[in-house]
Amino acid sequence: MLGGYGVFGARLARLLIADGHDVCIAGRNLEEARSCAKDLGCRAIMIDRAGSLDALAGHEVVVDAAGPFHAYGDDPYRLARAAVAAGVHYLDLSDNADFCAGISALDAEARGAGICVLSGLTSVPALSSAAVRALAGDDVPAVIDTAILPGNRAPRGLSVMHSILSQAGRPMPIWNGNRWEWAVGWSKPAQYTLPGGLVRQAWQIEVPDQLLFPAHFGAETVRFRAGLELAVMRYGLALFAGMRRFVPMPVTWPVVRVFKALADLLAPLGSDRGGMSVSVTTRHEHRSWRLLAEDGDGPFIPAVAARALLRRTTLPAGAGPAIEAITLAEAEAAMADLRVVTERSVAPTSPIFPRVLGQDFHALPDEIKETHWTLGTSRWAGRCEVQRGTGVWPRLLCAIFRFPPASPQIEVEVTKTVTPRGETWLRRFGRNTFRSHLSAGPKGMRERFGPLTFSIGLEVRQGELHYPVTSGHLGPIPLPHWMLPASIAREFVADGKFHFDVGILAPVTKRPLVRYRGFLAAKVPDDPGRQWPSYQ
Fold first, then answer.
1. Between 20 and 30 A from 192 (CA), which of 111, 235, 331, 477?
2. What is the pTM of this model?
3. How far apart are CA 309 and CA 365, in angstroms?
4. b/e map of 481-512 (b: 16 or more CB within 10 Å)?
């Protein structure tokens, strides 16, 4: 086991020895290897990944638990190829997306030798994919959302810290609403609930799941976040990420050691409770699997997948990322002697429009219902006509709200994204965009444009959906009726297509402000198996 004296390698070695395996700790530092081996009661040897690998001969399996895998240089799979040549199965604990995906290049060679070569046999993607399959079953998940949330007292490995710091503030590809987009490492925090009601915050970073799960599971959206228990560390890293967005500072080993020294000063704070959350949203259900590790057993979780696989009598031949390399039942069995609690939950999906309309929603035509059944991010595209009001007042309001210019025919695209409070709608008319936020209110729908919020009394009339404005607020201040815009907006079906006709009359004067009418259809998805475009 290379890196067998590291944070995760030593714990995997301990689990494998408990299962009766003959383990040999290996690495460049023979003194550390011998110290760890003495503690575990096993053997130790010195191996430098960049040097001679003759010592692999005579072993059945080599596990690379060293890393950081994103920094393996121009020949990242040298150890894996040497293992295949020596007739030794190769496994690693990589959580780097490119490294896990790229190892498939050795598939023909590994199959020909009857050797197993698996990358990412750790929390992601091995354990996360096992949980996704158990939750999804035969259904195609619309949204996959995973988070890893360690306790602050868990030991920190330099390789893991190097990986996270290298991503902070740098562009990363994500699969969102059937399209590749670019996001920023350590951004967009969200809350997750673990067993026992423990709530933790996590931030977006890159792991193999975002690259590999879209094509493998057919999901529309794949999310992953990681957390730090202490707010000072989370927001300190967010500040570092913000700086790197404008000044791309290199993350060198001296920089990593400075961060580790600072983190070690805070190690006595927080707790030794950590966890993991995996959720799958299907058409009608939101299904979750959650894990809570207590009493310092959290760092064993990244070793569970390898332990579960090595409990089998035979290993599969071929090379690739460790997606569904184990089952969730095998993983949970491999945690049975750890202080770990797992739980599952199932709840019906609750898109905002069915929630507000109740039974009336089901009276709508399918074409309208489909546009309002967004589970993660949905995209709609079509064409429309735009008319603008005349006069100084309508022009001023159109400029403030960024309504599109008049046009007899213009491309239109609407992107709807589910948020914790409702949905965000981004409308694009040609090059012009404007955004609003929808949420469920006590008396119907609310739509917010910046500081202005309007209550909308959604109504279903003869198979059409109407959007009359009933009240409004500027921040917390209610607007008098004469200051409200009048909305003559409806959605309907014509020629088998979803159509919209939105007319808005200006507040005070009630003169025409803007009117746009046209059609929308579901936007054609990107190919999830296609490599994302170069970052611009």
1. 331
2. 0.92
3. 49
4. eeebbebebbbbbeeeebbbbbbbbbbeeeeb
d(CA 198, CA 195): 6
SS3 (DSSP) at 431: coil
Q: State the CB neighbour count (10 A cutoff) for residue 416.
A: 22
Q: Token pair of 117, please?
A: 């070569």
Give Cβ neighbours of residue 416 (< 8 Å, ≥ 6 apart).
Answer: 371, 374, 377, 378, 379, 380, 423, 424, 425
Q: Nearest CA to 278 among 188, 349, 192? A: 192
Tell me the chain's radius of gyration from C-alpha atoms: 27
Give residue 530's pLDDT: 67
CB-based contacts of 303: which residues, under 8 Å, 6+ apart?
A: 8, 11, 12, 15, 93, 122
Is the distance from CB of 87 to CB of 115 less than 8 angstroms? yes
Sign of CA dihedral 264, 269, 270, 271: positive
How does pLDDT run across 197-235, given as a tens digit for each residue?
A: 999 999 999 999 999 999 999 999 999 999 999 999 999
CA–CA dist 270, 238 (Å, integer): 19
Cβ pair 200, 149 in contact under 8 A: yes
Long-range CB contacts for residues 238-244, cutoff 8 Å, separation at least 24: 238/186, 238/187, 238/189, 238/203, 240/165, 240/168, 240/169, 240/186, 241/168, 241/169, 241/184, 241/185, 241/186, 241/187, 242/169, 243/169, 244/168, 244/169, 244/170
Nearest to 118 by CA among 72, 156, 63: 63
Residue 109 identity (one-letter amino acid): E
- The set of residues, in sequence order, having a beta carbon less than 8 Å from that of 278 and lying 6+ positions away, is 128, 131, 132, 135, 144, 145, 146, 288, 289, 290
